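PROTEIN DESIGN WORKSHEET
SECTION A - STRUCTURE
LENGTH: 142
TOKENS:
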């Protein structure tokens, strides 16, 4: 709790801990290899970073272009849509989701920007956890 008080006093320097600034080259280097691209593989992709939190899993993706971002989650066994995540605009290209993973089944995550399908990746099923980070979203159920 003490570090939180210190961060409040020195908020600008602490934001770099929670929201590190990455160059485009660093973000490209963190791209996950096993994903499918539909178009625009240079500016929209799933990525991997160091998870500093032991109590939750994190999922990352990068969007280096403007536009409305959404992720559609489908059940791989039934090919049915489970949820659509609509992301608020943010000033950093790295999107981070805190989640709890269910390794018993897989889901297909498909990223869209401005309504156009960009890329997809299979993940163990996951459930979002509340977060107070820059990545803000709403969830639409089918």
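SECTION B - SEQUENCE
RESIDUE ASSIGNMENT:
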């Amino acid at each position: 709790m003490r570090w939180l008080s210190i961060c409040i006093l020195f908020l600008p320097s602490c934001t770099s801990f929670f929201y590190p600034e990455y160059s485009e080259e660093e973000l490209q280097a963190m791209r996950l290899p096993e994903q499918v691209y539909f178009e625009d593989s240079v500016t929209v992709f799933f990525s991997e970073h160091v998870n500093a939190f032991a109590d939750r899993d994190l999922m990352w993706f990068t969007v280096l272009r403007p536009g409305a971002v959404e992720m559609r989650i489908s059940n791989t066994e039934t090919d049915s849509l489970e949820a659509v995540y609509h992301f608020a605009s943010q000033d950093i290209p790295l999107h981070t989701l805190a989640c709890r993973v269910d390794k018993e089944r897989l889901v297909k995550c498909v990223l869209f920007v401005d309504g156009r399908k960009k890329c997809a990746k299979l993940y163990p099923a996951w459930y979002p956890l509340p977060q107070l980070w820059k990545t803000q979203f709403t969830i639409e159920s089918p």
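SECTION C - NOTES
The helical segments are 2-9, 11-18, 24-29.
Strands lie at 36-37, 44-47, 57-63, 69-75, 81-87, 94-113, 116-128, 137-140.
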